Amino acid sequence: MTGLGGWPDGVRLVVHDVLDSTNEEARRLALTGESGPLWIMAREQTAGRGRRGRPWVSERGNLFATLLTRAPQTTAAQLAFAAGLAVAATVSFYCQPAEVTLKWPNDVLVRNEKVSGILLESLDKERLAIGVGINLADHPQGTEFPATSLAALTGSAPDPDDAMLRLARHMAAWYEVWQANGFVPVRAAWLQRAAGLRKSVKARLEGREMEGVFEDLDEDGALLLRDAAGALVRVTAGEVFPSLDR
Fold this sequence. Notes:
The chain is an alpha+beta fold and 246 residues long. 25% of the residues lie in helices and 32% in strands. Helix 2 (79-92) packs across helix 5 and helix 4 (160-181) crosses helix 5 (183-192).
């Protein structure tokens, strides 16, 4: 695939038929001294996972990939938003771009249904794994937040190799923007696609839930939520459920 036109310069790729998890493979490679930038792609995962250790259904035909790269630990979390933009641009090639939105902190939606999730993991003080799963051909059923696939939306599943190429190109571009200009342009672009912005959302935090208006992201990517009393609450971790009204 690296011979295809458009593959980003200086970025390598390794493709596995089966892996336990592309993020775990990135962790193993980091222990050997690998620093990337390197994309690790698997046709199938036997132990894929999402945020908070949740299992990630890993059927063949979908895209499972992790970027192993360098990033300072203090600002590495900002790359989750860059990755969200890269995935959104990738997905937008196969469907109507206006239907693609971003759900804080790291999900990509189409028509208010989850088509992709991103798992960011610090491997050490200078290396980072950015795991991406995109539902190209199949999607899980009965999930708390509705899921979908590009095949369900468009009638055909994109080729995983084509999606990988597009993802790598878009991620390289956003990584360069982030390196050169910091989080400000990434944050601005992310907010343009934000699901539920300026609307009432439900936030599930550690040990409690709250409702409020999704006002903004701060300079670190935390969610700023206006509660019923008018106070602005800074949310750094949790789940957000925007209205599913279309």
